[in-house]
Amino acid sequence: MQRNQAEALTKKAYNDAKKEWNRLIKRQTHMLEFQTTLHYLEMFLPRKGRILDAGGGPGRYSIYLAKKAYRISLLDLSPENIEFAKKQAKIEKVIGNFDEFMVGSIHDLSHFEDNTFDLVLCTGGPLSHLAGSRNRLKALKELERVAKKNSYLFVSVMSRWGTLSVPYPKAHFEIRRTKHAIRLISGEDTMWKQKYYTHYFTYDELLELFSKVEGLKVMKVIGLQGLTGTWFERYIRKFKNDRKAWKNLMMMNEMVREIPSVVDSSRHILVIVKKTRKT
Ligand SMILES: C[S@@+](CC[C@H](N)C(=O)[O-])C[C@H]1O[C@@H](n2cnc3c(N)ncnc32)[C@H](O)[C@@H]1O
């Protein structure tokens, strides 16, 4: 499928901005994705400056960061998400900290000059939704280009093994079509539930992709759902009245979420890289 056809599908799939706004705080697996990303963000945030939230959807991270007085540029493919973010930023009284609300693709960031941002985010899978490995590499080069020397980039994507090991029952329709099942398991770009055009990454594949962009040094690779990746909802049901067990579970997650096999079995993978040169 061509990139622009895939982008049209992605736009449609994400046109419910309210649903996307609630995603990171409603379902517990996504809450863990959010909390873990924030944990690492706090470790790598610059003292001040400009942040690009690329593929930032309705702006959960943008608004969080605007409240900390950073200058934010939010870009997303979906006009509905961008409109929602604008309204939400007004409601939360941080609109003044936004430099831009822009509808666009991470594939082409020519609107922004080289070496502009003190931090670049591309979280929750925008890179996974881009069709074709060449386009994904181009987007990554764009994200690198607009970042300043010595700044960090946070890129999170959907994981192949983590994703496939959860929703087999949910994905009954995909799996009963043999060709499709083979595409899913062999890591070709594919449609999920006939709605999301997606590429699911493995740990090794991500490292290979990042190694193709000059000037990026991988700092950390994290399985955002850690050990509990695939069965998190079940853990919650089982542990919800036992604070001690819950605390220990979170501690266990924290101890192992950077181990490659755990990273691969998590549903989302976060890569933190440092830009080591001036473009
Ligand atoms: C699951 S949401 C993640 C939103 C937010 N970054 C987060 O971490 O919660 C994926 C977002 O990526 C956007 N997206 C997908 N492909 C994109 C592209 N090529 N360029 C810009 N945004 C894209 C979608 O419109 C959607 O808002």
Structure explained in plain terms:
With 279 residues, the chain is an alpha/beta fold. It has a single domain (3-162, 196-275), classed as Vaccinia Virus protein VP39 (Rossmann fold, 3-Layer(aba) Sandwich), CATH 3.40.50. Helices cover 46% and strands 20% of the residues. The chain contains 13 helices and nine strands. The strands form two sheets. Strands 3-2-1-4-5-9-8 form a seven-stranded mixed β-sheet, with helices on both faces. A hairpin with a 3-residue loop joins strand 6 (190-192) and strand 7. Helix 2 crosses helix 5 (79-91). The radius of gyration is 18 Å and the shape is globular. The relative contact order is 0.15. The mean pLDDT is 91. Residues 7, 10, 14, 20, 24, 55-57, 60, 76-78, 81, 105-107, 123-126, 129-130 line the site of S-adenosylmethionine.
Quick summary:
By secondary structure, this protein is α/β, with parallel strands linked by helices.
Question: Could you list some keywords that capture this structure?
Answer:
single chain, 279 residues, alpha/beta, Rossmann fold, seven-stranded mixed beta sheet, two-stranded antiparallel ribbon, globular, binds S-adenosylmethionine
β-strand amount: 15-25%
CATH superfamily: Vaccinia Virus protein VP39
Total domain modules: 1
Assembly context of the chains: single chain
Radius of gyration: 18 Å
The number of strands is: 9
Task: Describe the protein's topology.
Layout: H1 3-13, H2 17-26, H3 28-44, E1 50-54, H4 60-66, E2 71-76, H5 79-91, E3 98-103, E4 117-122, H6 133-146, E5 147-158, H7 160-165, H8 172-175, H9 178-186, E6 190-192, E7 196-198, H10 203-211, E8 216-223, H11 232-239, H12 243-256, H13 260-265, E9 268-275
Parallel strand pairs: 1-2, 1-4, 2-3, 4-5
Antiparallel strand pairs: 5-9, 6-7, 8-9
Bound molecules: S-adenosylmethionine.
